[in-house]
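A quick aside before the break. I want you to see a complete sequence-to-structure record at least once, exactly as it would be stored in a machine-readable document. Don't worry about memorizing anything.
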Amino acid sequence: MLVYAGIDEAGYGPLLGPLCVACSTWTIEDSCDPREPPNLWKSLARAVCRSTKDKRGRIAINDSKKLKGTGTNGAHPMRALERGVLAALSLPIGMPLLTTDLALFDRVECIDPAASAPWYEGSTALPWACESAQIQIACAMLRRAAMDAGVTGHGVICKAVDADAINDAAERGMIKTSVPWSLLVDHLTRLRERWPTTPLRVAADRQSGRMRYVDDLLRAFPNDRLTIIREDLRDSVYHLDRANAPMVISFTVEGENDHFPIALASMTAKYVRELWMARLNRWFAARVADLVPTAGYVQDGRRFVGLVRGALATTGLHERRLIRSV
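That is the input. The structure line, written in tokens, reads:
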């Protein structure tokens, strides 16, 4: 058996809202070589594809940037993302469908945003962008395909850090890239603890465009023997030996095109972040007339901050709780 996981992030660049780093994990019964993970788009082809325009109505699993809509055709922009994420989170069989964002945060082991700041109070009913029947059908499709393929989905874990935690890290002297890296290492450590005797194949997107990761990996896992499989312009791949089973980890340019678990992690991180931002926008809109929502990215985030400063002041909290310094 092989454990095949993918890690990706959403929200690295914005001024507002959380940074989310998600890890999607699967086990494949008839595979054990961590250097050659299977193509899960092929294994699960009865239920999944890469496109939102599939004539067979399969579930689109792809980079979140390719799946988020514009809303110009009347469809909710999160429809494709939500369908894939909620279907994946329904695995294994017997897992109840999610009906609120709080239930989703619990399932992906993400903190309740309301614990971070008052502007994250409230909740969103799920499904948010789809009809319940669409999610039920997608769940059934994916479950059947996974069973037939000998593939087991173990859900997605999503870690989120908000502005205050990012600002705290910056004040301690951490550079911005260290924050998502530390969350990635947390995911790797968790995978090893859960599957201590099973070969691990972990795929991640390139971290800030870097090509070399030897020093960072050895700091994270000082008792491992590390072998460089390759380091080139597209792919950095490493083999780490541990006591009971090997781990192969790769950092790939646009890795979501090659690795199904990265694509699903990308979708989940984006979906979780959007649910946080929905709460934030609702809270401020209830206090500032005619406020146009924000996605939190720098230019529009500055526009938004300029309009909500009065409402923010009523909370008694410092602006650093809302606005990132890096």
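Two observations worth writing down. The first strand starts at residue 2 and ends at 10. The radius of gyration is 20 Å. We'll return to this after the break.
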